Predict the structure.
Amino acid sequence: MIIASAPAKTILFGEHFVVKGCPAIAIALNVRSNVKVSEHGDLSIKVKSLNLGEEMIVDLNGKPVKLSPNLTPYTKIFEMLANYCNLKQAYIEIKSDIPIAAGLGSSASIAVALTAAYSRYLGLSLNLDEISRIAYESEKIVHGKPSGIDNSIATYGGGIVFEKGNIRRINIDKLSEAFIIIANTGVERSTRDAVLKVLRLYDKYESILMHVYEASRNLVNEAIKHIEEGNLRELGELMNINHGLLSAIGVSMLELEELVYIARKAGALGSKITGAGLGGCIIALSTKDSVEKVEKALKAKAKWVLKASLSMDGVRVMEKEH
Ligand code: PMV
């Protein structure tokens, strides 16, 4: 039996500004999805999600024979692996601790863990770049035109700076004491709508907003220094400034502001929208001194709250006897 897991991600700085070529920073969280591959009697690949209660069946050419709305995009992975070698029958179970549709990269994490587990089951030894590339193809089916941030973080773990399609890894070892608390507003968001709204505002007020984008670029460069030096206080301050910039480009709303200020009042070092905004989640940065208080305060208002720390580890694979 092969078991693989891969982490969730959150965007720490620079979302939206990244769409027009500014840098953004994403980090891996110690919340993971798990994929287990074992032998299966039939001549097919059966994939089951324990979270969704959905099941799909793929034939040994990588083609779906029983569809499932949320699992079908992963057939791309089998189709691509069929280019390396013959596929083998298998029973694949997916169990994820990452909330779905919350900007935490749940689908990419599953795609990475699935690619790693099933390719090992086939006897292939893919390197991390290949795993990330295959997962990206499956992400394209889920998200249309993803940036590549999610599959990169789920594969490599740690932190990355993403700029104009290029990914550079950064050292997050000195942030091991940090807690990231994620709180969900309960308001459904559409990344696509939020991105279009921001781009329209930019076109209308370019001479003003270009300075906000420039501020975000400088902020991210300053943040990289503080991440590598482990300066949590400064990172909190920069998160607060980043939140202000996101408000300026129109992706905040009352429910997000409430959570942002609840976190700060409870002692967070900083808090901000994460991801697309106009709903979805905020993140707060805390140390062990304030983490319980921040978590409790957010729980009183948010739809759900998740306490995480940063994960240096990306995808992990292990073999187990039955
Ligand atoms: O909320 P998410 O994880 O879908 O993040 C969206 C991030 C944006 O910068 C708003 C869009 C993008 O493609 O980078």
Summary: Residues 11, 15-16, 18-19, 103, 147, 191, 195, 275-276, 280 surround PMV (CB under 6 Å). Residues 173-309 form a domain with the Alpha-Beta Plaits fold (CATH 3.30.70.890). The longest strand covers residues 24-38.
